[in-house]
Amino acid sequence: MTLERRYILKRKIKAFFYGFVFYLCRVFPVDKNKIVFWTFEGSRGFCCNPRYIAEEVLKRNKNNNNHCKLVWLVDDVTLQFPKEIIKVKNSLWNRVYQLSTAKCWVGNSRTLYGTKKRKGQVYIQTWHGTICIKPIGKYRGNLFPPIAYLVSQADSQLTDYVLSGSAWCDDHYRDGLVYNGTIIRTGTPRCDVLINNRNEMRSKIRKMYGVPEDGNILLYAPTFRGGSQWTRRTVEKEEPTINWGKLLCSLEQRFGGQWFIFVRLHPQLAANNQHYEIEDSLNKVFDVTDHGDMNELIAASDAFISDYSSAIFEAALLRIPCFIYADDLEEYIKSRGDLFFDMYELPFPIAMNMESLIRNIIEFNRELYVRNLHNFMSEQNVTEDGHASENVVDLLECVLEIKEK
Fold it and tell me: Is the pTM of this model over 0.85?
């Protein structure tokens, strides 16, 4: 038996016993008012799509005298949450009990392999991306590990609704998430803050990190390398080849004003306590990896750089300059699979080395960029209007049978 087959057998045996615990917890009744949330398998806190859905639920609890009980599964219970949300340590028995007794589940990542759902329970999968550059699921072809397929398939069989914010998501989530159920065009809840709270976030984030009110922020948010591999999961980062000083000079030369750089690693890297060693003699580069919510940072930003992260499409909703810096393009495709797009057909200037990145910034044509961006968003039928969280909670209220008072 190969190492891979032994690993899969081990995971299946573990899933069987894990599922048995769910059957034991069926002696407890389902609380028809309880919603269980989690983000990134419990490794992160109050963030991403579940955060904005939870905030809308809390708002309606207060304004409409609803009585929804919100429980959040989290590895680190010292993380900050609204006081109305019950934080629960994401241990085996806690997790199984909470999931077994909740009417609704709302998560942005897969459940643990072996999870069982009871009749009448509803699972809303928000996912943690929008339009993708890097391939996911079946689109990875032979690079999609068998264990990842099994985990994806098992979770998708439990899922009742997957959220979408564009025609692109409608078309690609089935093979991308190995999912055959209902996809609903609600919009992406975590994008609501970009549309509704930009001024608030600009002030909040600058005050939090000591950036002047009139200071400009570039957010650099690369994705991770690795992921769900053939046996054990590995998550890796690459030290950036960016010269922060030159980058700052180019931004100030092209756009004027005083600039600051925020560096934000992927949540899976943050969960492993991985950070960059930043050499910053100007004190203008901040590691914001530990900031709770990515989209607060995007909302506060004036420019954005990434490589293969879907977050670039969310930043583009603000019509701020967005750049792609892909200095390992060939290697990344070799390890991950063919990308969804030809990088040169995207509306974002692309660079594969520092020299090209600087040139793209200096020669940035805003009028051409906005026109190309508008055409791209129209082609993908992106429908982000700032009401996604409301749309999802409307669905939740139907599931919970909450009648308007």
Answer: yes
